[in-house]
Amino acid sequence: MKGKMKAYLLLQALLAYCMCPVSSLDVLLVSAPFPGHANCLLAIGEELVVRGHNVTFSSLDNWVNLRHKSTERGMRYLSAGKQAVTQAEWNNIISKRASLQGFFSKNPLAIIEELRLLDQSRPLSGIDEIAKYFMNINLQQWDIIVTEHYLTHRIPCIAKSRNVTVVMTSMTYFSNESPPWPFPSYESAYSDNLGFKERGFIVIMFFINRFFALANSFRTSFDKFSCKETFKYPVELGWEVPYIITTVLGLEYPRTISPLTTYVGPVLSQALLNQHLLPVDLNDWLRNKNNKSVIYISMGSQLSLSDKMAQEIINGISDTDYHVIWSVGDINKDIILSIDSSRYYTSSWIPQLTLLQHSSISMAILHGGSNGIHESLYFGIPIIVIPGMGDQFDWAVRVSDAGVGLQLLRHEVTSRGLRDSIRRIDNDGYHKRAEKMSVLMKRGGGIKRAAELVEFYGTYGYDHLIPGPIKYKWNWIQYYNVDVHIVLLVGLVAIVMILKRSCKCCTSKKTKIKQI
């Protein structure tokens, strides 16, 4: 598989060299050391290498082995240091967060504990270490830096302070609104149909998040990397820095966007999209399976199902005619050994993007990570989402609102609940809506559009797209015309007072004339 990928990349690079007149750029990609964050940048880097650019990928060295994943795609790897936390320590925090059901629980005590764990995980993620590294090296050696939303207010601030072109990527839009509007805040697990209670909750969460950020700045070195403290201005995503959003409107809620924001749809590896060979044993298992007769299950790389939940899923599927391919992770081996191998194929690793293209796959049961959501819907496969933490609840709500899948909270995962969900997917038009979503995603532009934007910004810049209030650093008084409104109000009051005084004078004179 590796040899075929390298051959494919070499062939594409030769074609790009012959056909593409764009000058070669030196591009730096900077990612947090987690696969869900790195996948998009790895795909962009792969495409830029094919187009003949010199690409460097940088992150922390840890258990994900991003060094290997980037170099096999033709990129140079630049280590920003080593992540101190082990995978077991990180997974322990993830498991604790998952047990709280995130902000979706709407339990104040659970929400406070979720915020505390989230606050605890930030320094362990290594984003401060990455920022320290890039503050101490020469960034002028690159024409453009591309980073992702987990490093917001770190890498963009440093790059802007050194006058280096920088671009952000994200799976969802969470920048400032213009005009301001209470869209569901990040990790709120709300739909865009916001009532008074939901809008109130978002406002309260805003102040709580600000409190935790302030408290964190007193305890850690976070404030050293905040734009406001270090560089005297905030970096506005989509207004001052280009914002490449790797989803589509329809799954994401439509809203007013900033001039430098572009939706490109899922950014998927072209080499993996063109890879149709599955492992031999999996291919043999699928050989006699009918079209749309298989359910694919994956709970991601960081979360696993409890034995009880796994058994409920098995019991629920037993009442259907489906076969199952299951990326099992760390589920109890005793349960796996008891599964009928003719009906279930289980493995600790499944080539997901290749499998989802197979005609036998009917639906997917996923944990709600943005990569899995987009990959499934890209191929028109409806989803049952069992979210565990963070923005997985947001994606579960979006999938449900778009009518391309259903959400099951972990306490709702029973054999009956799963069986009913599968039947709803089959009978209530979810497949048809998922096929429509697939069309929207493929028309978004994907990896090619993302690479074109990087090439354009790296070659020509984007100053011409920055609005005046951002370019000239207006404060909120100027932006909302508060000073103008005050002057107009004072003027109006003055006119009213003058007119009122004039009327009193006229009335007084008339009274005196009558007395004479």
TrEMBL record:
The chain crosses the membrane at residues 479-499. Residues 1-24 form the signal peptide. One of its GO terms (molecular function) is UDP-glycosyltransferase activity. The keyword rRNA-binding does not apply. InterPro entries: UDP-glycosyltransferase, UDP_glucos_trans. It holds the Pfam family UDPGT. Keywords: Glycosyltransferase, Membrane, Signal, Transferase, Transmembrane, Transmembrane helix. Belongs to the UDP-glycosyltransferase family. This is UDP-glucuronosyltransferase.
